[in-house]
Every structure is written in C-alpha cells, then in structure tokens.
Amino acid sequence: MVLKRIAPSQVEQGMYIHAFQGNWFAHPFWRAHFVVEDAARCSELRASGLDAIVIDTDKGRDLPDEKTAASSPAPARPLRRPLVATPAAGPSSPPPAASPAAPPRPTARTASGPVPLTREFGSARRLAGKANKIISKVFLEARLGKAPRVADVAPVVEDIFASIQRNPYAFSGLMRCKAESEATYHHMLSVSALMVSLARQMRLPPGEMRLAGLAGLLLDVGLARVEADLPEVAQAVLSPAQGEERELLGRHCLIGREMLASAGDVPEEVLQAVMRHHERLDGEGYPQALDTRDLDVFSRMAAICDSYDLIVSGAVSGRALDPSEAMETLMSLSGSLDTEILARFREALGVYPVGSFVQLRSARVALVVDQCPGDPELPTVTAFYSLETNKHVRAKTIALAECYGEDAIVGVADLDALDLPSPEDLREALLSGRSRTDQIPYQKTNVVESAATMMSTSGTPERR
Fold first, then answer.
1. Residue 385 confidence (pLDDT)
2. In b/e form, how buried is each residue of 170-181, taking b as 16+ CB within 10 angstroms?
3. How far, in Å, CA of 201 to CA of 350, rounded?
4. Interior CA angle at 394 toward 389 and 395, to 5°?
C-alpha cells in the first residue's frame, strides 16, 4: 500500500480513492475505497470542497511526475502514517472483532474532552430536540412506505459526531435523562451516539465513526412496518426468541434492510448492521441464526450498543436501570457478544458510566458526571445527598482520580430507599450544573418500585 495525499483538482480517472480529508458534507460520497471509473465521478471529486484526497497508487493510477512536483494547496507526498482500511468480512474468514490496542492512557488530569460536560450538555439537549423532529418525520414516512435516504438523516449523525468530539459523555448522559420523544425515536438517537462513542474508542477513522453512527440511527427503522414494537424486541435481549416470536421479531431486520437498500445510497456496512444487529456469536440470534464466522465488525458493535440501551432504558425489564447496573448486565452476555468489542465499550463509557448514582465512602450519594480517561474506575462525581443526615447537601464535584483517596466509590446507590426526585430529574439538574437538588419539584412515591411498571408515552419507565 503506497498512499499519497493530493488536491481534489489533481484527481484523474483510474485513481483508487483511499480516503477523504475535510468536511464530511463537502463531497457526495459516503465511503472511500473505490476506483474513479468515469468522467462524471472525476468531475464531482474535483469540484468538491475537500481539503485533500488520499489515493493508493498500488491499486490505481499515480500522478504523473510533473503534477507531483507542481505546487498545490495540498501537495502530493507519502503519508507519514499509513491509513488502515477495515477489512471486508466473509463467512470463510471472520473479521477481527476490534483492534486489541486501546488508545493511550492519558494521565489522570487529562480532560475528557475540549468542552466541559456541563457546557456541552446544553448543546446536546438542543441538537437532540432538532434530531427528534427529523427522526420522527423519517419514521412516519417509513410507515407510509417511503425509504429513508442518507441525506435525510446525515445532519443528525454529523451533529452527534461533533458533540462527542467536543465531549464524549455529554450526549450519552442526556439520553439517561427524561425522554422528550417516543421511545423508539429516543432509542434510535441513543444507539447512534453509543455507536459513535464505541467507534471512537476502537480508533476507527472519522468516516467509519460516522458510518457507525448512521448504522445505529437506522437499526430499528424496520419497526415502522411491522407489528412488533420496541418492548417486544427488548424481551429477546436476555433470553433468545423462539419459534413464531423469533420469526415475527426478525421481520423488522429484514424489512429494515430492504427499505434502506431500495433508497440506493445507504452503504453496505449499514445495511449489514441493520440486518444483523440481533444476531449473536453463539448462533442464538435472529433472523438468520448466524454465528461468529459470518458477523462483521459493525454488526458486532451494533449488537452491543443496541442491547445496552434496551437494558438501561428499561425496555427489557420495564424498570430503568442505573447505567452501572446495566453495564454489569451487558457484561454477563459475553458468551453471545464479542468480548473484545465489549471491553472497548466498557472503556468508552466507563465502569460507572456518566449518569450512574453511586454511594461514596463519606456516606454521601453522588452522580457520575464525567470520566477520567486515564482510569475508567475513578470517575468524576457530584455529591448531593448525605446518608448520615438524610438531607440534601450543596452539590460538590469530586475528581476521584485526583482526591488522593480522601473519598471513593463503595457501590451503586439505592435511590429507592431515599425520598428523592426521580433519577431522570436528578440527572437533568446535576448534569446541567445546578448546585441544589432540594429545590427540584417532585411527588413522593413508594420507596420500592412495583414490578408492574409501565412505559410512558415518552418512552421513560415511570413509577406507579
């Protein structure tokens, strides 16, 4: 593989396009790795607003010497660092689940992102509101038989990608607050963000991170055309579906792929993930009962992200779980999910994901509000309630990786035993940076939540 970076104006027919460099919307192509076969495609690339294009001269035409020497905004030269393409998967040769090399571990003081979580939380809330309108429109049109097009949902994926680049935890934290949309739409948005976060942790190139986000967003678009709904799909997460139920649930995967394929512009990686996100490595999934030999990387990622969100949201049990409890439940499925990618997923979200309620050694209840990239077991928390006095205290943020053992997490907090506002309202307040939680309006509820919980119309499990 010999890679060169050239200006868009230098593209010629016969060149093999390895990668794009620049804004995602500056070109009409969703993926690289193709030969420029005709004049029309060559003209589109030359007219794009890309910063540069990477070509592979082993697989296609090179630049003539005189053009290589000519001055240009992005001169042709070998790349200092090789760019690695994701290998194609096939039944005869299973793909690597993920690169075993995790990102370098920064020091404890390294910030989780360039923008503080409290600031990005507000931005994430605004873009989620905009995204919900787009998703609801796409989903309703799908019910009427119109296939979603990439151009319809690309802005949502780009907004999620940009938010996670600014702060990798704000958007996922928002998804654990009270839903303001129908459960299926909220799930689609949440899984898209989880896919981008996981791809980021796996060190995938930006283009593939966006493809992962697109796959997550469209995984369940087939539900628009079948009789099954999200809670029914969720029941098969912890126990395999059998017989007629398996056939019914599998239809949303088949129809989803068929709808998207008919649009003509959805990448094959996304179509495979839509079709296979309920398949399992042990062959107990659906709709095709595939096993480890047949599952590509994106499908394996999708199975993990989709399962986690169904568990944590309460779609599986009818009761929303604390994110740390949901993570533990997900880890118990390692026999059917890819263990390497599971490890990267846990690194991406943390042992105690943002939004988890924990009990501290100082007899206080705290919310996990950020992660320490250098140590996923020592997150940043905001303590807000004293178990000794059974009273709210002024919120205090503690970076456990930097407090030199003055405080520590001793376990997951049992909020049911405390007279507190709902977990969703508490998360909303504390992730927004509020310092007082005793002023959140709420109605007192039973300390033990009934097993007969229900999903509200907004998609949030509610107390009875």
1. 96
2. bbbbbbbbbbeb
3. 11
4. 115
